[in-house]
Amino acid sequence: MNKLIDGFLRFKKNVFPQKRALFRDLAGAQSPTALFITCADSRVVPDLITQSQPGDLFICRTVGNQIPPHGSAPEGGVASSIEYAVHALGVQHVIVCGHSDCGAMNAVLHPERLKDLPSTNAWLKNAAAARSVVLENYVGLVDDVLLHLLAEENIVAQIENLKTHPAVAARLARGELQLHGWFYHIHSGDITTYDAQAGRFAPLDHGSATATPPRRIYHFSAGDAA
Questions:
Q1: Which of 3, 81, 116, 187 has its C-alpha lying 20 to 30 A from 217's C-alpha?
Q2: Closest CA to 181 of 170, 166, 172, 192
Q3: 225: pLDDT strictly greater than 50
């Protein structure tokens, strides 16, 4: 606790004065560019990884970066975070970010390890589709490789769950929202991003494809349907 208090005191003395104007502007409202949904793992620090400033990211953290489908019982407040960020704040991007050496994905791979964690076990059922994809299509691989593949497939599966949320579906249809799947490599500091067209993860750069390319909804009149 002393370490945390010391950190706050340094922030108040050295950091806050340099950003006083920014915090004054943020005191009344926020206008983040992206909703960043990631794992609760302490090694994943979105602001640090992206070098973002206060007010840039609306962050939602869950064990295993899980996004329950809309209307499912164990949403755990995730739906309200998505709805608020997308509908009320009007973010233009949603990033689903998994990572290497994920304990949650390790538990999905070996569910027997969750026997004393019933709540976590129930929560990680949202990764069942990703687990099936990996176990049924990658036979005979060692655990480390399976874990990496599972973490990637889980990102793709959670993006699909994300699309079931009404606010997301509506803005996707209008071409006002883009969804991104990121994989953060803790040991190297690299990020790979899901390229939906190629069906694989590639190094993140300005030309990287989005998981769900923006599209425009087709408007037609009653006469067009006749």
A1: 81
A2: 192
A3: no
d(CA 94, CA 54): 17
Ordered structural domains, the chain, with CATH? 1-27 (no CATH), 31-210 (3.40.1050.10)
Rounded average pLDDT over 211-226? 54
CA 202, chain centre distance (Å): 17
C-alpha distances (whole Å) from 19 to each of 5, 30, 53, 104 are 20, 15, 10, 36
Residue with tokens 């620090």: 45
Residues of the chain by 3-state class (helix, strand, coil), percent to 5: 45, 15, 35
* CA dist., res. 12 & res. 6, Å (int): 10
- The span from the CA of 171 to the CA of 196, in Å, is 19
Question: Do 26 and 55 touch, CB atoms closer than 8 A?
Answer: yes
Matching residue, tokens 């497939």:
153
Mean residue pLDDT across the chain: 91
What's the pLDDT at 224? Answer: 52
14-31 pLDDT, tens per residue? 999 999 999 999 999 999
Query: Burial of 169 by CB count in 10 Å (0-12 exposed, 13-18 middle, 19+ buried)?
Result: middle
SS3 sequence of 179-201: EEEEEEECCCCEEEEEECCCCEE
How many Å apart are CA 193 and CA 212, to the nearest integer?
12
pLDDT at res. 75: 66
